[in-house]
């Protein structure tokens, strides 16, 4: 095999394992027809690192997608985005809520509890944080979200 080809393949692989991709932020907070009821919003951030078991990881991400699909039906939901490392084992979520009680209701909802129960075996590390921001600041950047998780976040375990 050509040495240049092998080096290129290794470099592309390295880049993809450190490259992050996020879904567009979506939800009622992004719609001009949805005026804010309050001046502030609650942002819930999570970070997870999964292990090396591809079967467990697939179950984890399958459950993340189920929760993703159910979010718009949750009371007080204002928007969300999911971010992952391409070809990696790290992921982040950002959900935005109108108040703490509606976030708590979602966390204790059947869909979220099932996702935790079904996907927890894949998680080797996790952090979460919550912040209150002005509605006009929604969504925050992923760079800011990572900084908040690092500085203010609490470990899931």
Topology:
Layout: H1 3-18, E1 20-22, E2 40-50, H2 54-70, E3 77-85, E4 90-97, H3 100-107, H4 110-119, E5 123-134, H5 142-152, E6 154-155
Antiparallel strand pairs: 1-3, 2-4, 2-5, 3-4, 5-6
Walk me through what this model shows.
With 157 residues, this protein is an alpha+beta fold. It has one domain (20-155): Alpha-Beta Plaits, CATH 3.30.70.100. It is built from five helices and six strands.
Tally of separate helices: 5
Average per-residue pLDDT, rounded, comes to 89
Q: Please count the beta strands (DSSP E, at least 2 residues each).
A: 6
Write the H/E string, N to C: HEEHEEHHEHE
Number of domains: 1
CATH architecture descriptor name = 2-Layer Sandwich
Query: Strand portion, in percent?
Result: 25-35%
Largest sheet: 6 strands, antiparallel
- Report how far apart the termini are: 46 Å
**CATH-defined fold name:** Alpha-Beta Plaits
Helical content (DSSP H or I, runs of 4+): 25-40%
The helix-and-strand class reads: alpha+beta
Low-confidence stretches: none
What would the principal axes of the Cα set say about the shape?
globular
CATH level 1 class label? Alpha Beta
Biggest sheet strand order reads 1-3-4-2-5-6
CA radius of gyration: 17 Å
List keywords for this structure.
single chain; 157 residues; alpha+beta; Alpha-Beta Plaits; six-stranded antiparallel β-sheet; 5 helices
Q: Short description, anyone?
A:
The chain has 157 residues and is of the alpha+beta class. It is built from 5 helices and 6 strands; from the N terminus they run αββαββααβαβ.
């Amino acid at each position: 095999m050509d040495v240049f080809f092998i080096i290129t393949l290794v470099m592309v692989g390295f880049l993809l394992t450190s490259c992050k991709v996020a879904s567009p932020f979506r939800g009622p907070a992004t719609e001009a027809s949805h005026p804010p009821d309050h001046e502030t919003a609650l942002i819930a951030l999570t970070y997870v690192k999964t292990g090396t078991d591809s079967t467990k990881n697939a179950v984890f991400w399958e459950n993340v997608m189920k929760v993703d699909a159910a979010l718009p039906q949750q009371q007080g939901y204002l928007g969300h985005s999911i971010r992952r490392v391409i070809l990696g084992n790290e992921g982040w979520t950002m959900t935005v809520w109108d108040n703490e009680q509606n976030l708590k209701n979602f966390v204790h909802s059947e869909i979220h509890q099932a996702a935790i129960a079904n996907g927890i075996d894949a998680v080797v590390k996790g952090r979460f944080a919550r912040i209150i921001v002005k509605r006009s600041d929604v969504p925050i950047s992923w760079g800011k979200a990572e900084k908040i998780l690092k500085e203010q976040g609490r470990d899931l375990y």
